[in-house]
Amino acid sequence: MLRAALVGFGSSGKTTLFQLMTSARETARPAHGKGETSIGISKVPDARLDRLTALYNPKKRVPATVEFTDLAAAGQSGGVKALVDVAAYKNADALVHVLRAFHDPAVTHPSGSVDPARDAQTMEEELILADLGVAERRLERLEKDLKKVRTPELERERDVVTVCRAALEEGRPLRALDLKGEDLKRLRGFQFLSAKPLLVVINLDEGALSTGGEAATRIERAAEATGLTKFLTRAATAAVAVCAKIELEISRLEPPDAAAFLADLGLAESGLDRVIRASYDLLGYISFFTVGEDECRAWSIPRATPAQLAAGEIHSDIARGFIRAEVVTYDALVGRGSMAACRDRGEVRLEGKEYVVEDGDIINFRFAT
Ligand SMILES: Nc1nc2c(ncn2[C@@H]2O[C@H](COP(=O)(O)OP(=O)(O)OP(=O)(O)O)[C@@H](O)[C@H]2O)c(=O)[nH]1
Ligand SMILES: [Mg+2]
Asked: Average pLDDT, stretch 137-159?
């Protein structure tokens, strides 16, 4: 499951977005007081799962999920340093920076004025500063350890962390570094915040969202208007525009009314759909499906995941006892109408554990217990 953590200055709309993403009402207590975190689950909308469910009429339909973490004023004056210690932030696959671009005299901005480009820059600096602290502490330790025993592994780690520290000192986030393979693995344990992919959610005025045009153009225009363009060209950074408050209100309407309101705003999809899709694109996540009369279910995995690892997403026993994966494409299954028909036409492939799972694959894992 993908884990995303919301960061952003006070009153930028984090909790509003959290509620929009997780349909949290009374069920999950949103974070208000300082230091309080709330964790919620978001169901990933997927028309393919709807179609498969219609085909199998299973007892259960289980969508893929994304976990969101919300913390009050996550990023304000030293707040980011505190994030380094919160497990949900350390373990997040991606950070979602909720950036205030809406104007509302009733909602005070902690810095006194609405300036998204400044806030984006400040957040970046805070993430970098927090990581710099982690890197420096680690280097001190490593130097001490290296005085006792010299191992190639310790030396290599010191070299990599030194490269990181240098980048951070120059004000560069670690996600902009081109680290590979073993070095990337060495860093994973530190859970550097500036190394995580960053999705910027621009929280716009209602009016700014409805100025028509394609969603992509709208985001570009918003990014330009808010001085974010330079910031967004960095590696592993993407943006999406929402109007959290109005979209939350819309999401609580009956579906036909909600669709009509979205259309009025010139939006083809809900805020939930857009933010989730942007997160999947940013992280390069794809979905595969398992189907049957008991359950039709979507699973999400990073692109280029081999079959055995994908099986582990379902259960470690299935990965361990992996024999073969029976694979059919979504289009083939929906086109033929049943697994049996696909089998008759030789469209069900038998794949080994190294097979790279494709987006939309329908998989039946055969395994030994
Ligand atoms: N006008 C307008 N108000 C918004 C929007 N999004 C959020 N708000 C309002 O701004 C206020 C703060 O929103 P929250 O979602 O609580 O902000 P937050 O980032 O969680 O704030 P902290 O938890 O204090 O850090 C609330 O009154 C929201 O209703 C928006 O898009 N437009
Ligand atoms: Mg909040």
From this structure: 93
